[in-house]
């Protein structure tokens, strides 16, 4: 299952997400997008646990003697009454003269001690001379051992000085708590899966649904075939690891893309189940998500599931009840009526079968209203498939923020379980899963902020502060299911500069710059470090350029040294390669990178105005979408048709995308490229009008009723406008909207007012368009006519090569009347009165050539 019904299209200089290979069978995920784009605050706060940190949070913990610690330095005299837990006790030292530790499995005794009579319940008592763990069942006793482990050990694995005297009475709120490996993209490696299974056991998660979308033997076309021998062996090893950790291994099959509702395919399905049964699988799931065609028939799905329940589950005798994922797994597109599939399941599907649901949209908060809506139709508590922290729709992010968006008023009557669909980065998903485990065990007590603080120390105890710096700035997705990020950081506009705030922000960028090295030095988990490394590299660069931007701000505000400012300004600009690297591994997207982009733009704009002597035409993106005011809109104005602004959420009635020209002016030509390409893209307004306005309130239509047009060109008598927009007309389309180019009054060789000669004269215009966002890279000779009356030129360039840029000034007869060698980014040329033409020779990026 995807966490958006379409992959979010981001900048093409970053990882541009299109339909994945696993979806190439024709199912159009992009037709069903509807992620919301608002950001909610993170509930909870950090708590001082006085050194007693247990995850998940116990239901009842009574510290009977607050100032007393029980020493266990001699070891433990272990009495495992049922002989079940030798494998689970390897973390402690045994000794005959050690403190007595008794582990028992006794449902009646556990219930008498106050636990809720559910699987996984236990009591743990620590007295001065003995420790007792009593499990309601075998799993409960194992969980009691995990609690003892956490009480004994520091996060770095070293032993504490002693154990507190206490009694814990504990049980899980939800019967099913765990993870579904259900993302698109690279499945986890075998070693990462084994690591995760151990992690789940230690944190009392009991469910692992194995259903990687890119496992060909899980889905079409090979679901009917047996696993190759080596892969089958690995699955058996996963099952054994799950048994050791009391995790139910649930093998899922995804046959709906090409299943035939006949006896042959029924037998194929049963045969595959028997093959998996022989490998040790005792829990099964059938997924009908992300398909179309005959496989979506809910009546046929019900018949299949009910028949399998009788002829396979019940016939085997040791197989758990089935779990299914419906095609209508989100309220967004589910038929809410009695004729809808959910209601059909409620009336006809065997009540033992658990039904997955992702909520109001594919990536959703878990709320009571959501579950009430579902449960009233399926006639049982739903099974929540939470698409977090999965990023298969936005692979340029590694989500490390708090685990939140989960209603703490729910009970097992509202939902039978919760599974998280994580990232393809399994180790980096542990921080979120630490929170999922905590929530599903003790819902009312769940404190997202505190859990996050505890989780970071659990995962990276020797580099917790550096990890926290990285994690607090690595939470947002920019579009879709957004998460809070950088909530402790204050940024500002250049116009609101405050020296104290600027210094504090510089300090934070300094911490950002230094955090990756500290993490690399202190992180003991090599696989986690490997997963994070590309993001850490870019995080370091973000810190560096953020610090330099603040230092530049100080130079800019002094306004004393134009050359110094410009020379350092161009050094701090991101190169196309640097931008592409960042876009592929993003962090700091909510505050830090926008601060850098905005202050660099604002300083550049102010400096350009100072150089030109007036405010030239400057484009600014506007629109109805929430991200229309972000730096993403700059991609419409960079004269690069391979980059684009994307709305990031589905389009709806009255949506629009446009440009603010900064002031009212004569507009006589408009050129727009919609979509991510002009061939078969789905992200565009397929029914649209082109409109203009002088005040942003009253709009006049220039072109109406345009249907399925990627390319829109208008030219005519000048109109007075400050704003120009594309306005969505009636349409059934729900895709994102994207615009590659939005050009108003494009500069042309025949309207610039002087002659230009270059290898590509049209592109050379970017050196004279009075826009720093567009540049011209000269690699040979650029010649331009000197406009009469010009006394000097200011050249704003990148760093010239070692040989510099040679300047030759010619009179109208072609005779040389002056010259120079340019070696720095900021240069000013005095123009002789008889100069008619200037030639620049050399390789250099030219931002602007400004005549005065």
From TrEMBL:
GO biological process: carbohydrate derivative metabolic process; carbohydrate metabolic process
Domain named GH84: residues: 175-444
Keyword Acetylation tagged: no
Pfam families: F5_F8_type_C, Glyco_hydro_20b, NAGidase, NagJ_C
Record keyword Signal present: yes
Source species, domain of life: Bacteria
Signal peptide: 1-22
Domain F5/8 type C: 600-746
Active site as annotated: 290
Molecular function in Gene Ontology: hexosaminidase activity
This protein's UniProt keywords: Glycosidase, Hydrolase, Signal
Family to which the UniProt record says this protein belongs: Belongs to the glycosyl hydrolase 84 family.
Designated name of the protein: Beta-N-acetylglucosaminidase domain-containing protein
